Amino acid sequence: MVWTRRHVLSLADFSPADYDVVLQTASSFREVLSRRTKKVPTLQGQVVANLFFEPSTRTRSSFELAAKRLSADTLNFAAGTSSLSKGETILDTAKTYLAMGTDMMVIRHKEAGVPQAIAAEMDRLGVRVGVLNAGDGQHEHPSQALLDLFTICTLFDSEQPRLSLLEGKKIAIVGDILHSRVARSNIWSLTASGAEVHLAAPPTLLPRWFADYVADSDDRSAPNPRQLFVHWTLNPALENADFVMALRLQKERMTSHLLPSLREYHQQFGITRDRLKLCKPEVKVLHPGPVNRGVEISSDLMDDPQFSLISQQVTSGVAVRMALLYLMGGGKVA
Amino acid sequence: MVWTRRHVLSLADFSPADYDVVLQTASSFREVLSRRTKKVPTLQGQVVANLFFEPSTRTRSSFELAAKRLSADTLNFAAGTSSLSKGETILDTAKTYLAMGTDMMVIRHKEAGVPQAIAAEMDRLGVRVGVLNAGDGQHEHPSQALLDLFTICTLFDSEQPRLSLLEGKKIAIVGDILHSRVARSNIWSLTASGAEVHLAAPPTLLPRWFADYVADSDDRSAPNPRQLFVHWTLNPALENADFVMALRLQKERMTSHLLPSLREYHQQFGITRDRLKLCKPEVKVLHPGPVNRGVEISSDLMDDPQFSLISQQVTSGVAVRMALLYLMGGGKVA
Amino acid sequence: MVWTRRHVLSLADFSPADYDVVLQTASSFREVLSRRTKKVPTLQGQVVANLFFEPSTRTRSSFELAAKRLSADTLNFAAGTSSLSKGETILDTAKTYLAMGTDMMVIRHKEAGVPQAIAAEMDRLGVRVGVLNAGDGQHEHPSQALLDLFTICTLFDSEQPRLSLLEGKKIAIVGDILHSRVARSNIWSLTASGAEVHLAAPPTLLPRWFADYVADSDDRSAPNPRQLFVHWTLNPALENADFVMALRLQKERMTSHLLPSLREYHQQFGITRDRLKLCKPEVKVLHPGPVNRGVEISSDLMDDPQFSLISQQVTSGVAVRMALLYLMGGGKVA
Description:
3 copies of one chain form a homotrimer.
Chain A: H1 16-33, E1 47-52, H2 58-69, E2 73-78, H3 90-100, E3 104-109, H4 114-124, E4 130-136, H5 142-156, E5 170-174, H6 181-192, E6 196-200, H7 209-216, E7 228-231, H8 235-238, E8 243-246, H9 251-254, H10 262-269, E9 284-286, H11 299-302, H12 310-328
Parallel strand pairs in A: 1-2, 1-3, 3-4, 5-6, 5-8, 6-7, 8-9
């Protein structure tokens, strides 16, 4: 197994081997995290800059912890107190962090394409800095999809998680597909695994063109049309599903005429213990967090360890992000 | 001496042995802090999350430094940029930090009871995460009272500070008792030591029911009525006092009809060199900071090392917080 | 070579030997920064507090990285969430960080003189804490001028950068001189080197008294009048210049009647490839950043490595700040 990527920007062009390298490396770091001293000296003396142009606590903390556990030094850039408000361009901000000696940049921005633009600039300059997309607009959030993948795959083989374990599984993604970078990244990874992906949402959050958009993508060969399905009601997506991924409903959506009301949304698309009876008996529920309890998922279901993988997702996040930073930093594949 | 607490939430149920363990452990860390390399590897690889839902610089820096000097990694949660504003519950935020691999949580919140609720949830989940209350509403601020206790006790025996050294001492607590979590925590520790505690404040900041509230507490046996006294004027509290603790006057109090004016407050309850003549000659003055100079304490008195312990309190704070994190992290009692 | 300064507050009283010690020490740290593990254990266990009362990302990150690469622990103080808004004085805030065990303080404040006041208080208290001025109002920004100096000197001798290398060079400083702490610090260092310094700006940003103000300074012997020149047009400053330093134009200046418009400013004082033809062929351009592209410097010139030293300045910044923290921390001069 080899890893040749300097950047992690999108899963659209990830190969099956890329996924397996990440899964396998994350698996070995998960072992580190179960020790009392959860730290390895791998990135000692290297600098990871967390450039979060869009505020975030959860994802930034996860990356910060991943970097610290690899013994890297971290720099946190807080949007709002930044030079951006002083008229500096985003590329100039990135180049400033480059010139300070940053080895890897973890970038979140509310506009799609910003991490890609920064990565392209780094390559143009001929520097060996890795750029990781920690969420760009409504485009992609690859580390989230990779941690979802890791969480699911380790259920089937905790020692050797690999993409092929999901072949033939049915996975429902429910909620605000249209605005979700998490959904977009997950569609690439899950269809690549050979799973069937069923999207379910109200039409305002899952327009008819969405499936075509994915199918027409020239980023890579389109997902097999027998693998990606679109539903405007919940039940067909849930029937015999192995996994249900609920997406976070942004407050903005709730107040901008895209939804009648939270109560109606929950009634139609909320995941409840009752609705899960349509799924396979061993079905598991995922959510990228933070959850609006009682909206996307009923509160009791969220806390039920028989069904909920939400807490495992957060734990996987640190291991997967350690793996990504490690691989981007030139670490050997185990 | 043994330490059996996973959490430090309140001093209401602290035993004399608990106090002595903290005092003795802090004493050994104070020695570490006097070295040039003020660091020990005790908590290497462990993660301390500072979850300050209420903004704070002073206390957060003190905890952050304590954690770093024990070689822990720290995660800082900044209220305002957090998921809370995204609709997540506080318990879900705490569980997210748990799932990331946090070993200890230091929690401040403007509502009383939040650290307790989080600790109860951690216990319910059966995880070994320690929760430290860094100030919850107007309820308690145990690490502040413990650092006050440490500061006072080391005056009498710098090698072996212990609770019993305060037996029979007279300690005045002056100011906004009603709204003060610092006062509430200090009342438990100081009465437990056998000291006489005299509260002094205007009636608006020290209502008649306050003494009953303390006496009626079922958290533990009420303080001996011969140990806790309430005064609406300053002089009876100061007479022959060994220590005077001035409390911070929040700006809000000054503008909300609870006080006639700052000038009148200072005239009636401000601690001045002149008023200290009522006390024992070797009297010392404490204040949890930040101080409104010329309001709670006269400016010259605050800077007079003969009387002021304010700077020692800050220094004690780091040693006491190192001790608490160390003990909660399973460190052996010396 | 010896270093006897506890604080770095101003360059007005820097001796030639002081400059050379900083340049030589920075040179050895630049070598550390070129290694893969860019870290040395010099300040292990020491605490550097970054007290940025005025928000900053770039300078704070540079100091934070410098401290971490010396293995110091860092505390960041964020204006806004601070005790200052609670009525505490700046000196009391500094004394709180002192009492916590801070070894060095890096201070930025929008009022001139704050770092000096804090340093004076530390000296009065007889403590061995070093204070570094990271920008005080419109007064000085010594670490910026030192990194500019280092950037220029290493062009002439990368192994042994020293002040005397600039003797007889012509350096133009262009832009908002009046409000610039960067210009003020650079005037001291560059005239001390024996270079000719030519200031160019519109009269509103470079009043007639400015040259006198510098000449009359009793901080040290005034710069030789044959070394400091004032121009209200750009060309005489550029003619045969070896270096051009463009200053950042604050947005406030642009909207407060001090300038007709950005377009006119750029037309009259913007540095362009065309205008550089007046300079020496090997002329280099500096800017302290962040740059308003197309205002102070034309966008293409800024990105042209043949002329622009902007990125080297940022890199020099980390090496120079490591040198300053190292020397203030009692490090031996190489």
